[in-house]
Amino acid sequence: MGFVVDRATMEMVCSAQFWRMALLWTLSLLFSYLGLLFPEPLSSLFPSLRPNPSYPRRGVSLNPSSELERPICVVTGATSGLGAAAARELAREGYHVVLAGRSCQLLSETMQKIKQQQSDACLDAFQVDLSSIHSVVKFESSLKQWLLDSNLHPSIQLLINNAGILAKSCRVTADGFDQMVQTNYIGAFVLTNILLPLLKNSPVPSRVVNVTSFTHRCVTFSASSVDVSKETLARKNLCFLPASKPYPFAWTYEYSKFCLLLLSYELHRQLYVLDPASSVSVIAADPGVVETSIMREVPPRLSRLAFMVLRLLNLLQSPDKGVSSVIDAALAPPDASGKYFFGGKGRTIRSSSLSYNSKLAEELWLASSLLFQETQHAVKDSETN
Ligand SMILES: NC(=O)c1ccc[n+]([C@@H]2O[C@H](COP(=O)([O-])OP(=O)(O)OC[C@H]3O[C@@H](n4cnc5c(N)ncnc54)[C@H](OP(=O)(O)O)[C@@H]3O)[C@@H](O)[C@H]2O)c1
């Protein structure tokens, strides 16, 4: 019996983006693991491999006399993989978990599964599509209304920006952005900004955790050659490539995760360093490689092969294990703000040198803010016309 390779698999294997993914992503992952292992004396030669501190997890204190019955946590992309695992773990830790996802059916199925394992889990679900600014704005008003109707304190304590995709083809959203950039970065930027008043209103310190990826390391050139302008973010020059040119899906994924990391450090500076009164800390979490549905657009033959090779190299984790860096980040003490959690056991490493470039982060912040404002105006205009 012959080994038949379908056209989609063949096309992917023949693309430069596939090899970028296979080689550069594996190297980036190994570099991150080196950050955990590198011995102290050699680290002075390679500052990016300097050992970083570990942070213990703080338990959630359920104090019946406090204004808060249970701290409230919003998890995006909670219907699958790492998001579902994070929702379950945080419910177990005592959070009232708000699961945010695109599909009502998947949301109720996920809640049921968590309830089967933990009957006293406190859960609620809201529909939100991170690739639509209108949907994110609607989510915020539903959340506020729910807090009011449920007689809960008008605040949230934790936001986990986890939703993400690895899109194989270029798709343009109703807001006019590349779908992968909007889901993985712009959606998280908008959601964090509009939920900030609720995070700042928390009577106890609150936190944002951004789920980024080791693939950010592939964006490694100098600050002057990385473009975080409004035009590139809006993908005016990439998403509208002529149909003859292949969509740079691996590059776009790396870029979106790099932007999310820059956003984490910029928010940390703005909220934790410059405005300590806000009591909002911001942490980036990198789960490593996890066997989830993230490769759903990759031909099944190739995703199975990739997972098989990663398993043989002992680099593939289950969602239960991979989520530990996200939970470490969620439960770390406030002074872990601005850190990059990787490898579980509360460990942190340094992300790429370029990700600490504060000028680039500021530029990205301004470009994202302008895009958000412009899109919001466009949405309002279309609603009034
Ligand atoms: N798996 C890995 O190896 C790995 C490594 C590093 C980082 N990460 C990051 O981890 C995060 C979680 O990914 P995963 O591995 O758990 O993948 P996954 O199983 O595919 O889960 C992704 C989740 O995001 C949701 N989502 C996608 N588009 C959305 C949108 N427009 N609005 C709202 N939700 C949306 C999905 O919802 P639907 O079910 O409705 O599609 C799903 O719940 C992602 O940000 C990913 O980049 C993953």
From TrEMBL:
The keyword Oxidoreductase applies. The keyword Oxidoreductase applies. It comes from the Eukaryota. Keywords: Oxidoreductase. SUPFAM superfamilies: NAD(P)-binding Rossmann-fold domains (SSF51735). It holds the Pfam family adh_short. GO terms for molecular function: oxidoreductase activity. Belongs to the short-chain dehydrogenases/reductases (SDR) family. This is Dehydrogenase/reductase SDR family member on chromosome X-like. The gene is LOC109717328.
